[in-house]
Amino acid sequence: MAGALAFVLAGRRHQFATALSSASIVVLALATALQVVALLARTEAWHRTICAAGGTVARRVLYRASAMGYVGSILNTQIGVAARIAALRRASPSESPGVSTLIAAEFPILAVEAMLAAIASFTLIGPLGLPWWLPLVALAVMGALSAGLRHLALRTGRELWNGLAVLRSMRGGRGLIGLVLIAVFAQIFRNWLLLQAVGVNASLLDAIAVLIAMVAIAQLPVGPTVGAAAAVLILGHNGVAAVAAAGVLTTVTGTVGGLAFAGWAGADRVWSGRRTRAALRRLQPSAVRDG
Fold it and tell me: Is the predicted pLDDT of residue 254 greater than 70, yes or no?
């Protein structure tokens, strides 16, 4: 993927560099902040699915585990999910559900994201030349899959189905949808902001199409070129150099946002450890006196 992009940008290096430098620090900071908002909203959605599944993990511990997962997702989405689950089980094995339940707890969030993508898939018709009826098929398929997940969520007796428990009530479902919407719209606005910053006259619908393409391409082992590849695929006709620059900036701000979240997690873990050790030291003299 990186080689293909390099080939496409051959002879356009000056335009590419100019587009990269046209984004101001303020715009980059805002784009990074939007990425952090998306990460926090999706993490809170994960917290809801874990609590509904019977987990009693403290929100702080879960957020730290989630942050470690987002570091892994820089390389690949599946690696990020595995890292997040492993970090949570390691940090809080007795308060978190089993691995199978944690895996199943990912599906309600993925189902909401996939349904939103199906609803907005009409934005791909023009850029990719798709038939007009394909979004209707995608919507019908996702509707059937969501209904199936709801049916499985109502079943009991198997640990795996507990991960879908958030779908058992309308209140839980609405809360989950609201959080996922916050995360998705933060990413859409980030895409649109960066496209405008490099001089691409893109609409919010274009930004949605780029996000759908990013999520789809991210399932492949393509590494950090996801943003540029998705942007060029959808909006390359608007100027490959500028569009690729916007994609690179999307990847950069996404990476910085994820690392900032992970940095907080690391600092919070150190601070919490020091506070726990200090509390134990204060208890030791009193324990000696009582003895």
Answer: yes
